[in-house]
Amino acid sequence: MNRHSTASLAKATAKLQAVCNNFNNANPVGTEVSVLLDGGEVRQTVTTSEAQVLSGHSAVIWLQGIVGCYLLERVKTLPKEVA
User: Fold this and answer.
1) Helices (H) then strands (E): counts for the chain
2) Residue 82: is its pLDDT beyond 90?
3) Which of 45, 49, 54, 39 is nearest to 77 (CA)?
4) What is the average pLDDT across 17-32?
5) Residues 62-76: what's their mean pLDDT?
6) Of 7, 17, 41, 72, which has the most beta carbons under 10 Å away?
7) Is the separation of the CB atoms in 31 and 45 below 8 Å?
8) C-alpha span between 30 and 61 (Å, rounded)
9) What does pTM read for this prediction?
10) Sequence-ordered list of residues with C-beta below 8 angstroms from that of 19, at least 6 positions apart, any chain
11) What is the DSSP string of 38-78?
């Protein structure tokens, strides 16, 4: 890998980490979300982890009742109920 490729990868990973940090700062573990599943179904669930960068290339999060992780871009927080 040449120097430009390494710098480009580091920059892309830093952007993904910033996306994860923004999500994590606004949404603690246990936040209610909806996720777009592979088959097109939208399911409501809760986060069971913080968002993180997986293998340097994808921002992901783990969710209750779902095997494996999902891309963070497929997860939307649900409006908080007003008491």
Assistant:
1) 1, 6
2) no
3) 45
4) 97
5) 97
6) 72
7) no
8) 12
9) 0.85
10) 51, 59, 72
11) TTS-EEEEEB-S--EEETTTEEEEEBTT-SSEEEGGGEEEP
Give tens-digit pLDDT for 36-53.
999 999 999 999 999 999
CB 32, CB 23: distance < 8 Å: no
Q: Residue 63 is encoded by which pair of tokens?
A: 């969710």
Band the pLDDT of 58: cuts 50, 70, 90: very high
What DSSP character marks residue 64? T
> Which structure tokens are listed for 51?
């968002």
Give the pair of three-digit tokens for residue 27: 């949404």
- Strand intervals (E) in 3-49: 32-36, 42-46
- For the chain, how many residues are written? 83
